[in-house]
Amino acid sequence: MNPIELGKAISEYGTPIITAVMLILVVGLVWYLIKRQTKREDKHDEERIKIQEKHDKDQKEERDYYRNLITNDQKKNVDLNIQGIALQKEMMKAMKDHDNYSRDAWKKLNGSLGAICDKLNGIKSGEV
User: Fold this and answer.
1) Residue 95: which residues within 8 A CB-CB, separation 6 or more?
2) pTM flag (> 0.85)
3) Tens digit of each residue's pLDDT (9 = 90 or more) over 23-38
4) Residue 59: alpha-carbon gap to chain centroid
């Protein structure tokens, strides 16, 4: 094509050619922007996943910490309950022994007071 023929072609077919070129450029631009947006969203998704994993890890550590606290407290409570039961048994035994000693002491005291009263009243032991 000569320059004159090119000018003639542009004048006759210029609008469809320009429209086609513009259409190709717009399609290329849209394709580029979609591709770029997809990459951006993928990167954002990866960052969100990392943040969520970190958050999940922190929550798991916190949950485990409190579970361990409760478990340890329950174990301590079991130990303390066992010790408390043992102390209660010892105290009950001591109280029974004390009751027996008290009964014996009261019997002896009553006997002694009775003997003192009998002497003061002039009664000999065994004469009632």
Assistant:
1) none
2) no
3) 999 999 999 999 999 9
4) 8
